[in-house]
Write a structure and sequence with these properties.
There is one protein chain. The chain has 2 helices and 10 strands, in the order αββββββββββα. The protein is of the alpha+beta class. It has 2 domains: 1-97; 109-232, Distorted Sandwich (Glucose Permease (Domain IIA)). Strands 1, 2, 3, 4, 5, 6, 7, 8, 9 and 10 form a 10-stranded antiparallel sheet that branches. A hairpin with a 7-residue loop joins β9 and β10.
Length: 237
């Protein structure tokens, strides 16, 4: 009787011990699973945060690049506007400014031209003829000093009739001939567009007109094409 009780008691103790061990193992497994799940959640959250941060950095860089681009465009537009404004101002100023050279007469017709051949001249024509009525105002084509004035071509010969020669500087002279009247004197300083004479038909002339020359000296024989010269100075001849 005693032995059976002892045996049953021992078995009961063993069963309890096994149950305790199984329960403990199950607890460890549950705890381990919970830990793994917690670590996975943490990794996922960390990855999401990194992605958001990377996106924010990229957006910031893009915004900065766009701002720099917009600033450059604004500066370029401002520079272009300033350049256009300056050009317009310079054009307006040039338009208002007095011309450097002008036609020696107004309301004319071009007749005999430079280097033209004909029986009227010893060789070829030394200037440009402006056909105008006698008494038309003749003006200085450019400012300078009168170096010749009077009859006999102002010293260049009777073929020129009454004449005037003006020194302009840089080796340039202008000559006006066949005048009916001379209104300036040698040594007088004249301005561009100032009256110097009245046109006429004196000297070797077939009709009233102004004979105009551009020379490299004050004397006959140094003439250059006056129309080409005036056009190079911006005068519409």
């Amino acid at each position: 009787m005693s032995q059976r009780v002892t045996s049953r008691s021992s078995r009961t103790s063993q069963l309890r011990t096994r149950a305790t061990v199984l329960a403990a193992g199950l607890g460890v497994s549950v705890a381990l699973g919970a830990g793994v799940a917690s670590a996975a959640d943490t990794t996922s959250a960390s990855g999401a945060a990194s992605a958001v941060q990377a996106q924010a950095v990229a957006q910031a860089k893009h915004a900065k690049a766009e701002a720099v681009k917009a600033e450059k465009a604004a500066k370029a537009a401002a520079a272009k506007k300033a350049a256009e404004k300056k050009a317009a101002a310079e054009k307006a100023a040039a338009k208002k400014a007095k011309p450097s050279w002008v036609d020696p007469v107004k309301k004319y017709k071009l007749s005999a031209s430079f280097a033209q051949n004909g029986g009227m001249w010893q060789s070829t024509h030394s200037g440009q003829d402006f056909a105008v009525p006698s008494g038309t105002q003749v003006v200085a084509a450019h400012g300078g000093t009168v170096v010749k004035a009077g009859g006999n071509g102002a010293g260049d010969g009777p073929a020129y009739g009454n004449a005037v020669v003006i020194k302009h500087g840089n080796g340039t002279y202008s000559q006006y001939a066949h005048l009916s009247k001379v209104t300036v004197n040698v040594g007088q300083i004249v301005k561009t567009g100032q009256e110097i004479a009245k046109s006429g038909n004196t000297g070797n002339s077939s009709g009233p007109h102004l004979h105009f020359e551009i020379r490299t000296t004050a004397n006959y024989g140094s003439a250059v094409d006056p129309v080409k010269f005036l056009r190079a100075k911006g005068v519409t001849v």
